[in-house]
Structure formats: structure tokens, C-alpha cells
User: Fold DUF4229 domain-containing protein from Actinomadura yumaensis.
Amino acid sequence: MAWVPVSVALGFVGLAVLAFCSFKVYLGVRRFGRELERARRRLGPKQSALNDELRYLQDTRASQEPDDGVRSS
Assistant:
């Protein structure tokens, strides 16, 4: 009959280990989210500048008339 309390205790110990690991994962995910937000804030102005440059290049390319240049076959 001593195996009943031992199995219950082992079950609680297993749950405690799972709770500890879950808490560590939770803290890691929060830390990773903060790091992503910091990177997003740092890269935001550069992404905006690149988008503006891309828009400018697309507008200048679209405004050029197509040539009747040499065609290769």
C-alpha cells in the first residue's frame, strides 16, 4: 500500500517539473517578443526609406517610354 502515496507524490513532482519548464518557456517567449519589438523599432525608419526608394524607382521606370531598340531573337 505504500506505492499509492509514492505514485501520487511522483505525479505531483512531474507536474511541478512541467510547470517549471512551462514558466521558463513563457519567460523566453516574453524576452523574444521584446527583442523582436526592439528590432522592429530600429529597422522601421530604414524600411520606410527603402520603401520610398523602391516607389521612386518604380515611378521613374514607369514614366519612361519604351524604346524601339534592337531586339534579339
